[in-house]
Amino acid sequence: MTEGQLAVFLGSGLRLAMPIIFAGTGEMLSERAGVLNLSLDGMMLIAAFCAALISWATGSPVAGLAVALVVSIAVAYVQAVLSVTLRANQLVVGIGFNILALGLTTFLYREIFGPLSRDTIPGFSLLDFSWLAAIPIIGPALSQQTALTYVGLLLAAATWALLNFTSFGLAVRAVGEDPRAADQAGINVRRVRYLGVLYAGALAGLGGAFMSIADSNTFTEGMTRGAGYLAITAVIFGGWDPWRTLAACLLFGFATALQFLVPAMNLDIPVALLLMLPYVLALFAIAGFVGKSKQPAALTLPFERGG
Amino acid sequence: MRMSEPPAIAPSHRDFWFSERLRRTRLRFPLSLGVAVAATFGAMLIGLAIIASTGTDLSDAIDAFWDGMAGSTFTIGASINRAISLAFVGLGFIFANRANLTNVGGEGQLAVGGMFATAMALHGAASLPLGLSFAVPLLAGTLAGSVWGGFAGALKGWRGTNEVISTLLLTFIALPLVYWSVESFHLLRKPLSDVSSLPESPEIPDATKLPLLFPGDRTSPLHIGLLLAIIATVVVAVVLSRSPFGLKLRAVGLNQVAARRAGIRSGSLMTVAMAISGGLGGLAGAIMILGQQFYLTNDFSSGYGFDGLVVGLLSRGSALGVVLGALLFGFLRSGSIDMEITAHVPAAVVLICQGLIVVAIAGSAILVEKRGRQ
Fold first, then answer.
1. Quick check: A272 and B180 CB within 8 A?
2. Which helix (H) or strand (E) is A15 found in, with range?
3. What is the ipTM of this complex?
């Protein structure tokens, strides 16, 4: 492997990891509060579509990002009503949302852009930090990124701080472990869970927008290709810990990037096996064969006051 | 057990009564046929409104839809063939669900089932006598699916791993496996000497294809999968409602601890339940390959597993409900394809309807549960 290949690999790995980092960070917080959003993929897809549509219509990626954020928070609100207030099965609701999101975005895309649109969409431009680029190997990877990449990495760190050093973070952890005790201690369980889901929605929105207006500058049908599921997988693999989740997201991003590196290096490793690698790792993790991770005790369990 | 009316005093007491009631009954999802029917009709009305909003003439769209769905002997047969696969996945779903296990991995089980059926059909089964030429590949697909499902069941039974997450992960492992098998010449990919070099398997030998139900009628694509589906429906219905095994499943589903005290080995029961559930999914995949597609492609499963899951959800645990739901979705899928081709309405409308149905049913579960128990 040449140094050039390595730099390209690191850069593309980071770019591929970013949507998962956004979505996984938000999802980690929501799951710590006890709500699993299987609809993450749908939220990302809708956000990717909205960002592309608005950016294309107005020429401003910032407007696209803003609208994507608002829409994905709105979707998350509906998810919260269903899974917190109506205490619906969080997993089934999530699958329904994903089918709905795929249908809606595909339908609207074909109606608005036409089935074979090749329009490029105005996206965020790359920031060129020459001082960063001077660092060997990781420099070029870190510097050839859009502003959103840095926002995502900052958000991952901020979420860690939020979870560990604020009273809200304490409430989140309490609600996810033992909602009844948290309720008796005066914490508004429903409010904390709503905020958790909305936070996951907002970050999934940023992740989806990243795909369409920061990475590829185009929208394609079903373009998330299961990135939302991958983010949930990363949370599991990361053992519901902020830094380990971030590491898992990066690992999955680099694993995905391997499919471009491996042919370039003339290695004979089937791409398909690389594609399934994250899921195999996660399967081992949830089965308890890798590391010791304990899920929040009240994950996916609805809570109702009284009793 | 009949419950007395809740005491009509302060609302907090009423809420308390509901929560106690819910905790005792363990909420299961699809609850009332009424909600399922209402959700389906509501979603279809919304679908029609969406089609109308695109400026397409509704009658054109409906005509195209009808033609694709049931316009001729051929399309009716094709729709029913679609419904057969969906019914198998749906039956698998309700089977595991009786033990309160949610098998959302139908897509993956179907994918490995189709893959192993193809492998068996291409390598060895063709020369077998007495119908074994297609029975052996069907069996291979079923076994592959049951390994895929049973693994998730074993993880749940002995390690407490959430089966929703494990079956989903297993789906995302199965799909690249299919991709790998059709991409690699040493696995199932057809040799390069063929006209095209698409990543797909060669066509399976004629002897391994499922016999047609009406061999004389060239216009009907209906195959004997229909008979298998009818048999499976009856067997699943009888096992779930009339057999000791069905009762054990239910006992484990309602209360694992109590079932264990009653001498039921819940770990192995869960494994078996998921293996049967996954086996039905694998059989669906095998039938898709041997009955209509005849060669394996990367995305041959194309959402049938997820559609079958929706069918299972809609049926609220009834085998007859699965058949009705499978027919509905089989015909809808056929219709939507024609509607896209002839009337230029994106087939994604059907996805929107399906998504709405699932969300509506899941969202109303608690309301139904409250009313149903009063």
1. yes
2. helix A3-32
3. 0.84
